Q: What sequence folds into this?
């Protein structure tokens, strides 16, 4: 599958590694440094290319957005319309000194509202990039869960497949309104920041 990645840092860059390892193609985009993305693409080989955020948005059926919360609007304005795209949202609502107060909405709902027509699925956001890199591909009872949620069943099935391809067990927590348990901060009863296995 072709996956455009907007923000290929710790989480997005590691996702690019996990996806290309199993045969997916990625286009990595959106950096302030001219050397970071070419270096990453060279590491990943011929399944990776570098482009603009707008090119990532049109590269294939799936787009991952993986930028810091304060940069989401800038990234989306660089990307252009994501209508019809399956968007994997890895973001957490951290701002300088804490996390954004979202009122009664989840961060996933707010992002869906910022991307009209996108088929948003929140995933890959509950575990650190280092932990994802270290645990991807574990087998048997040690295989780690990656949670997802979204309002589009077909989009969720596609992302669940990518989670499986990346080496994790996909577990669906429901719609975007149910995303709070997946979202920062870490707290009792939430899955955010916690390692889960199937049994
Ligand atoms: N790190 C984790 O363990 C972790 C875990 C779960 C979820 N998340 C969430 O995933 C998202 C990405 O986190 P990350 O840790 O992968 O971030 P990161 O390592 O800082 O990567 C962010 C990417 O966005 C790019 N970018 C372009 N313009 C930017 C701007 N104006 N400001 C900031 N970055 C800009 C950065 O490129 P350049 O720096 O090359 O310019 C970088 O490639 C965040 O919403 C975070 O809360 C992170």
A:
């Amino acid at each position: 599958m072709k996956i455009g990645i907007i923000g290929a840092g710790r989480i997005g860059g590691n996702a690019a590694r996990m996806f290309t390892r199993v045969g997916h193609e990625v286009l990595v985009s959106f950096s302030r440094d001219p050397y970071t993305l070419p270096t990453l693409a060279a590491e990943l080989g011929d399944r990776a290319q570098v482009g603009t955020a707008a090119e990532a948005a049109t590269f294939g059926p799936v787009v991952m957005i993986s930028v810091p919360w304060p940069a989401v609007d800038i990234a989306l304005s660089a990307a252009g319309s994501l209508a019809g795209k399956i968007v994997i949202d890895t973001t957490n609502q951290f701002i300088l000194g804490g996390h954004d107060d979202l009122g009664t909405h989840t961060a996933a709902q707010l992002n869906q509202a910022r991307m009209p027509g996108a088929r948003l699925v929140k995933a890959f956001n509950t575990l650190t990039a280092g932990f994802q890199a270290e645990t991807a591909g574990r087998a048997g009872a040690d295989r780690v869960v990656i949670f997802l949620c979204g309002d589009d069943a077909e989009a969720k099935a596609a992302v669940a497949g990518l989670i499986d391809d990346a080496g994790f067990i996909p577990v669906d927590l429901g719609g975007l309104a149910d995303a709070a348990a997946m979202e920062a901060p870490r707290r009792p009863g939430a899955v955010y920041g916690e390692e889960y296995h199937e049994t």
Q: What stands out?
A: The chain has seven helices and ten strands. Residues 2-182 form a domain with the Rossmann fold fold (CATH 3.40.50.720).
